[in-house]
Design brief:
It is an enzyme of class 4 (lyase). Its EC number is 4.2.1.113. This is o-succinylbenzoate synthase. There is one protein chain. By secondary structure, the chain is of the alpha/beta class. The chain has two domains: about 100 residues, Enolase-like, domain 1 (2-Layer Sandwich), CATH 3.30.390; about 220 residues, Enolase-like C-terminal domain (TIM Barrel, Alpha-Beta Barrel). The chain is built from twelve helices and twelve strands. The strands form three sheets. A seven-stranded parallel β-sheet has the order 5-6-7-8-9-10-11. The chain has a three-stranded antiparallel β-sheet with strand order 1-2-3, sandwiched between helices. A two-stranded antiparallel ribbon has the order 4-12. Helix 2 crosses helix 12, helix 5 crosses helix 6 and helix 9 packs parallel to helix 10. The longest helix is centred in the C-terminal third of the chain and has 21 residues. The protein binds 2-succinylbenzoate (OSB) and magnesium ion (MG). 2-succinylbenzoate (OSB) binds next to loops.
Length: about 325
């Protein structure tokens, strides 16, 4: 597999690092305020924002991704515009118009969160119906984040599929589960494809799902896969279509996703890179927000005044810097 370039020493890594708190307009996976770190290196800016509940071992790839962006830059693009989906969190159906209104201009594709804990299939069906009512021609997909078992997934996708769904992202938690859902959908003649997300980014082997034939397409994210170059390698080796997505990043992390989407030889799907539209604040004066369902390729350079205004309190800054030092030590040990 890949041998990683060495990481800069912590002092160098943290010389121009900014820990920020970005308030959300819409609560997303339980997050109202997104804390993350942006850091500058000789090649530009990188973002380190593994969710706080992620362990240090899982965060190693996120650090490699931030360093890859800031110290080595991005590979050459093959396109300068990337189609982007709107993202609808697991909100009540009545809030769907307000969420979609956050996405400027035309919306070509929407990803709808489903199978949220504490909700049921009626909630999901109402949310999907509300999106379809507003956007009769958009391409819709759902993301269950592994929240169904195989039987529940088949029941749910038969019902939600009536609104016209291109694919279901991680409808079951495991690779075997994805394969079973995919087979069950085919047996029942339900025309919904299966996409793997957690089964790519949280598995020790990101290629296992492709090898097992368990998915029709892969969701790839630069940070959990260790950076743009590494993600490109994984897609090439998997031999499956890929949709690029993000992790609720600031514009700096979205820039890495954009670089990945811009460098992929084929990009058949709108990408999940529109989540800055769900945030109230960003580190850029002109945030990387899609317009008319597209993001234009450009660099993400944080504004010093915004970095200062959005800075977290001292103890949160210390928490993040301690975490980076621990993850750095772990990455060195693993290299
Ligand atoms: O893909 C998108 O539309 C937005 C990104 C997204 O859904 C996401 C954001 C943070 C953490 C997990 C996920 C996910 O795809 O499961
Ligand atoms: Mg997902």
């Amino acid at each position: 597999m890949t041998t990683h370039p060495p990481l800069p020493e912590p002092a160098e890594l943290l010389a121009d690092a900014h820990v920020v708190a970005l308030p959300m307009r819409v609560r997303f996976r339980g997050v109202d305020v997104r804390e993350t770190v942006v850091l500058r290196g000789p090649a530009g800016w990188g973002e380190f924002g593994p969710f706080p509940e992620y362990g240090d071992a899982e965060a190693v790839a996120w650090l490699r991704s931030a360093v890859d962006a800031a110290w080595h830059g991005f590979p050459a693009p093959v396109r300068t515009r990337v189609p982007v989906n709107a993202t609808v969190p697991a909100v009540p159906a009545a809030q769907v118009p307000a969420v979609l209104a956050r996405f400027e201009g035309r919306t070509v594709a929407v990803k709808i969160k489903v199978a949220e804990r504490g909700q049921d299939l009626d909630d999901d069906a109402a949310r999907v119906a509300a999106v379809r009512a507003l956007l009769p021609d958009a391409e819709l997909r759902v993301d269950a984040n592994g929240g169904w078992d195989v039987a529940q997934a088949l029941v749910a996708l038969e019902r939600l599929g009536e609104h016209g769904l291109a694919y279901a992202e991680q409808p079951a938690p495991t690779i075997e589960g994805l394969a079973a859902v995919r087979e069950g959908l085919a047996d029942r003649g339900i025309p919904v494809l299966v996409a793997a997300d957690e089964s790519v980014r949280k598995e020790t082997d990101p290629l296992a799902v492709a090898r097992a034939g368990a998915a029709d397409l892969l969701v790839v994210k630069a940070a959990p896969l260790g950076g743009v170059r590494r993600a490109l390698e994984i897609v090439a080796q998997a031999g499956l279509p890929a949709v690029v997505s993000s992790a609720l990043d600031s514009s700096v992390g979205i820039r890495a996703g954009l670089a990945l989407a811009a460098a992929l030889p084929e990009l058949p799907w709108a990408c999940g890179l529109g989540t800055v539209s769900l945030m109230r604040e960003d580190v850029l004066r002109e945030p990387l927000r899609p317009v008319d369902g597209e993001l234009e390729l450009r660099d993400a350079v944080p504004d010093p005044a915004l970095l200062a205004r959005l800075a977290v309190p001292a103890e949160r800054r210390q928490w993040w810097l301690d975490r980076i030092r621990r993850v750095h030590a772990l990455a060195g040990a693993a290299a």
